[in-house]
Write a structure and sequence with these properties.
This protein is an alpha+beta fold. Among the domains are: about 40 residues; about 50 residues, no CATH class. About 35% of the residues lie in helices and about 15% in strands. It has two helices and four strands; from the N terminus they run αββαββ. Strands 2-1-3-4 form a four-stranded antiparallel β-sheet, with helices on one face. β1 and β2 form a beta hairpin. The protein starts with a helix and ends in a 5-residue tail after the last strand. The relative contact order is 0.08.
Amino acid sequence: MTSVRKMKRNLFVGIIVTVTVFMAVAVTLQYQTNNETEEKQDPIPQILILPPPPLIEDNLDLHPPLDLHPLNNSNVAQPKFEIKLQNEIEDEVLEVVATLADAKEYIKEYGEYHDDLFVYDMDTQKLVLTSNKNE
């Protein structure tokens, strides 16, 4: 029976020694990793709190009024032609352009998809151009 007791005691002592060594290794590794991460981290910068800027007492007009009715608009191209989509269902103005060249460019670009685009002179309301290939 004494040999069984000796075996139990040796097993208990072995477990205690193993747990102690494991704990010592774990604590050592944790200490080393903490030191390495502390060295890698930058120190937290100090926050600089500035006082608010002084209030300006001047009444500055940051948004001057817009001149909605300019006196000289001779250099602005005025719309002269309107391009309409006209068929049995719709009669809608799609675009308003200043020159006949712009109207032709519009018809050239979109006329291949529509046969019902018509260009009218806005002053006379006369048909000037159409996208219909048959006309």
